[in-house]
């Protein structure tokens, strides 16, 4: 924790200062910003409180001081990005799905001739960290040398803390001396032994001009679907945020299986009665061979001869920017060598056919699913994988990527996230709230606000948590979550109330999930709809679509349209364009899977409830009213003309995409969710 009232120096971005202007401004530390990773500092020169992450602290000096000089500033080393407050906010709230490391961790470098004058009492600090990962719930606020303060969110006068497993230590010392030290010592030993067997490190002397990146131990308790402890995991990770592009790494992109593909393969497997087995690659990233020369400091728990001062990475480890990509390339190369082909429509789906049978592999980083029409082929595939990689075999898949697979007596399978719903309700202080029948309050219409203050609540974090749930298993809240996400920039009290309304709806539907049922034939159909001028702020429309497979959604979407539509037909036409883009990809992926199983793929049929829109796809009718529509949407006519997409009129009462475009009253919402195949699963 920083000392309140101490003197600070705030970096002035390059674009906001002239060549001879001071690089920093004097200020007084007054607190932490609650909605971004930054500090609140009273700017003495401007006479107001500013928000910045690029701050140096002089905790030996308090109150107003003499103006800072250029000579003083030259002693400071600002390594953070030169961003003004607005750019900083835009950058920090992008959903990256990955946790950001602190920028104040030091790395070791070989000595270089450089004179640096030290100013007593000054210490550089990075901004407080905001945990954005859905997989890492622990906040490392007790780390040695870490200036990150614990962040306490306030919502409606009730303190809300992010969910933290207090049994997970944040430092190496805490792990080896805490109450669970026996378990953590075993986990540390297992990690180091795994690295030794795979030849991950090579003892080295750091060359002149080179630098060694830091390392850190991360401790995690892996739990089962019921919340009980499965294993203690210790992971040695690199502080990859210190890597330099073009020197320590180049390409970093690595694909993961899409949720649509996962749901589709699960549904098709249940339709044919195929088993789904699950494998977990042990320390997967340690299999990738490094292409760049990277050195790291000697980790805690590792002892080397005094002639060596660092380790050279021969294999990739967790935390490196390129680690995921290197692992994916290694896995892809091996799987293709044993007869599998990469899907044309998802790079993380592998298909193999043999003697009229088929087997599929799905991979999400180190989680692997294997299914197919032949038990012999499945067993052979698993043995081949275990020969090359160390794996734990869970046999039947019951819990993958936070999703429970619950089998029904009628051969159905329900994809549910009960535990995740419980977690986010508890995290945001809504675990004791009263349930409601629908996620949107129909008596309230939200609009944007120009207010200079924001609601004192974890609005962005809550919407982000709900977005993950929406993407995975809950299409019934897709519109509601998209609706509140429109007010991210300046949320007010009414917007926070709308978010809490979604939590209240989840309170009563914790056990609801997508239910796929086997049928006589593979039933696949799509629905497209639009809500014309539904946004009261800019009068733009909302597009919605859903694609049904075996009685439940396999893909869905709710998106605000980029331009104002002049009529309902135009809004429906633009929405149909979005639906066809998604539908063509899903249809091709589905045909690829079922054809591997020697079945004929279904046709792509999309239901539409606007007759005028359907006519516009076949002929340029109503030219005077439609001539202004952007040419990019007219691909619809080509798709229909070629017969690749078929459109069918349906009544508005049975339009399943209606729930994706607007809020519905309780009875209507309940009816639509049941028709969508979202059902409650009781144990």
Question: How is this structure best described in words?
Answer:
With 683 residues, the chain is α+β, with helices and mostly antiparallel strands. Among the domains are: 1-130, no CATH class; 413-507, no CATH class; 519-680, Ribonuclease H-like superfamily/Ribonuclease H (Nucleotidyltransferase, domain 5). The protein contains 16 helices and 31 strands. A six-stranded antiparallel beta sheet has the order 4-3-2-1-5-7, with no helix packed on it. Helix 9 (459-472) runs antiparallel to helix 10 (478-485) and helix 12 packs across helix 13.
Q: Which outline best applies?
A: globular
Taking all Cα atoms into account, the compactness measure Rg is 28 Å
**Counted beta strands:** 31
Alpha-beta content class:
alpha+beta
Task: Please give the oligomerization state of what you see.
Answer: single chain
- In terms of DSSP E residues, the strand content is 15-25%
Largest sheet: 6 strands, antiparallel
What's the mean pLDDT score? Answer: 84
Helices and strands in order, then pairings?
Blueprint: E1 6-11, E2 24-32, E3 39-43, E4 48-52, E5 55-62, H1 70-74, H2 85-92, E6 108-109, E7 122-125, E8 153-155, E9 158-160, H3 172-177, H4 181-197, E10 201-204, E11 211-213, E12 215-223, E13 229-238, H5 259-272, E14 276-281, E15 295-296, E16 310-313, H6 323-337, E17 341-342, E18 349-354, E19 357-364, E20 367-372, H7 375-388, E21 391-396, E22 399-400, E23 403-407, E24 413-416, H8 418-427, H9 459-472, H10 478-485, H11 493-507, E25 512-516, E26 524-531, E27 542-549, E28 552-560, H12 568-596, E29 605-608, H13 611-618, H14 623-626, H15 635-642, E30 646-649, H16 666-676, E31 678-680
Parallel strand pairs: 11-15, 26-29, 29-30
Antiparallel strand pairs: 1-2, 1-5, 2-3, 3-4, 5-7, 6-11, 8-9, 10-16, 12-13, 14-20, 14-21, 15-16, 17-18, 18-19, 19-20, 22-23, 23-24, 24-25, 25-31, 26-27, 27-28
Helix pairs in contact: 5-12, 9-10, 12-13
């Amino acid at each position: 924790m920083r000392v309140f009232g101490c003197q600070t120096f705030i970096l002035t971005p390059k674009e906001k200062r002239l060549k001879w202007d001071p690089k920093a401004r004097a200020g007084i530390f007054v607190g932490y910003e609650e909605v971004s990773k930054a500090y609140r500092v009273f700017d003495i020169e401007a006479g107001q409180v500013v928000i910045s992450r690029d701050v140096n602290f002089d905790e030996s000096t308090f109150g107003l001081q003499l103006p800072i000089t250029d000579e003083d500033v030259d002693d400071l080393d600002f390594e953070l990005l030169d961003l003004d407050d607005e750019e900083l906010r835009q950058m920090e709230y992008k959903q990256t799905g990955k946790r950001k490391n602190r920028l104040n961790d030091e790395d070791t470098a070989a000595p270089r001739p450089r004179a640096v004058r030290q100013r007593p009492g000054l210490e550089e600090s990075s901004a407080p960290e905001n945990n954005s990962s859905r997989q890492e719930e622990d906040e490392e606020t007790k780390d040695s040398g870490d200036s990150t303060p614990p962040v306490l969110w306030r919502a409606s006068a009730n303190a809300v803390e992010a969910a933290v497993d207090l049994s997970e230590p944040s430092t190496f010392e805490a792990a080896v001396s805490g109450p669970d030290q026996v378990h953590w010592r075993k986990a540390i030993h297992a990690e180091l032994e795994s690295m030794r067997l795979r030849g991950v490190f090579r003892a080295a002397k750091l060359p002149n001009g080179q630098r060694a990146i830091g390392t850190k131990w991360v401790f995690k308790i892996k739990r089962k679907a019921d919340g009980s402890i499965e294993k203690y995991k210790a992971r040695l990770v690199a502080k990859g945020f210190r890597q330099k592009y073009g020197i320590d790494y180049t390409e970093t992109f690595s694909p993961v299986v899409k949720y649509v593909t996962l749901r589709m393969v699960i549904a098709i497997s249940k339709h044919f009665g195929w088993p789904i087995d699950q494998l977990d690659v042990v320390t997967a990233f340690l299999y990738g061979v490094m292409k760049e020369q990277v050195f790291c400091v000697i980790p805690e728990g590792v002892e080397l001869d005094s002639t060596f001062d660092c380790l050279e990475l021969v294999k990739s480890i967790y935390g490196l920017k390129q680690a995921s990509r290197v692992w994916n390339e290694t896995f892809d190369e091996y799987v293709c060598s044993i007869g599998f082909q990469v899907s044309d429509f998802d790079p993380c789906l592998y298909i193999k056919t043999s003697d009229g049978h088929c087997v599929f592999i799905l991979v999400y980083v180190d989680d692997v699913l294997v299914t197919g029409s032949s038990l012999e082929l499945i067993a052979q595939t698993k043995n081949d994988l275990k020969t090359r990689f160390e794996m734990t075999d869970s046999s039947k898949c019951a819990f993958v990527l936070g999703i429970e697979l619950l089998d029904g007596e009628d051969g159905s399978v329900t994809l549910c996230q009960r535990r995740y719903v419980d977690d986010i309700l508890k995290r945001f202080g809504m675990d004791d709230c009263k349930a409601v029948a629908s996620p949107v309050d129909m008596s309230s219409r939200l609009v944007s606000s120009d207010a200079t203050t924001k609601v004192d609540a974890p609005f962005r974090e809550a919407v982000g948590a709900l977005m993950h749930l929406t993407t995975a298993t809950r299409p019934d809240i897709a519109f509601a979550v998209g609706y509140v996400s429109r007010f991210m920039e300046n949320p007010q009290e009414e917007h926070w109330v709308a978010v809490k309304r979604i939590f209240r709806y989840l309170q009563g539907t914790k056990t609801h999930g997508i239910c796929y049922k086997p049928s006589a034939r593979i039933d696949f159909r799509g629905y497209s709809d639009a809500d014309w001028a539904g946004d009261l702020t800019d009068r733009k429309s909302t597009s919605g679509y859903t694609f049904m497979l075996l009685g439940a959604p396999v893909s869905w979407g709710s998106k605000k349209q980029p331009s104002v539509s002049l009529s309902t037909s135009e809004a429906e036409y633009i929405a149909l364009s979005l639906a066809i883009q998604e539908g063509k990809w899903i249809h091709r992926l589905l045909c690829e899977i079922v054809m591997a199983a020697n079945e004929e793929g279904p046709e792509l049929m999309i239901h539409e409830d606007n007759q005028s829109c359907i006519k516009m796809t076949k002929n340029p009718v109503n030219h005077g009213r439609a001539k202004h529509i952007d040419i990019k949407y007219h691909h619809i006519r080509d798709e229909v003309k070629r017969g690749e997409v078929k459109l069918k009129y349906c009544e508005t009462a049975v339009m399943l995409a209606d729930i994706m475009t607007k809020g519905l009253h309780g009875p209507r919402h309940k009816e639509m969710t049941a028709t969508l195949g979202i059902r409650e699963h009781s144990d």
